[in-house]
Design a protein that fits this description.
This protein is 46% helix and 21% strand. The protein is of the alpha+beta class.
């Protein structure tokens, strides 16, 4: 995994922890799992919260935009509760098959 991806995860996790007391961690999935730079690809992440609503989603987007601008990356972040995530069966199956989980501190959880 690239240093930039780790930096994105650390920054997002820190921002989400400070802003939301129910942030539970995130999954990285997609092209960046191979540890290489992909200039034309988004860094794809699932951010897990105990609850989600319109206000929370609206609060998340400025955080994402700031990190995209600061680091020169494109992010595709899906905010979900655990149940919402499991109900999105296609995405859930893909992420569970190959994704990597990071705890709320941005530390990778080894399988």
């Amino acid at each position: 995994m690239t240093t930039k991806v780790h930096e994105v995860i650390k920054l997002l996790s820190g921002s989400f922890r400070r802003r939301f007391n129910d942030y539970e961690g995130m999954y990285l999935f997609g092209a960046f799992l191979d540890g290489k730079e992909h200039d034309e690809e988004d860094i794809e992440l699932i951010a897990l919260f105990k609850s989600t609503d319109k206000n929370k989603r609206e609060s998340i987007w400025p955080i994402i935009g700031k990190i995209e601008t600061e680091l020169g990356v494109s992010l595709d972040v899906y905010p979900y509760t655990e149940d919402e995530f499991k109900n999105d069966e296609v995405l859930y199956d893909e992420v569970m098959a190959e994704g990597v989980f990071f705890n709320p501190l941005g530390i990778e959880k080894k399988k």
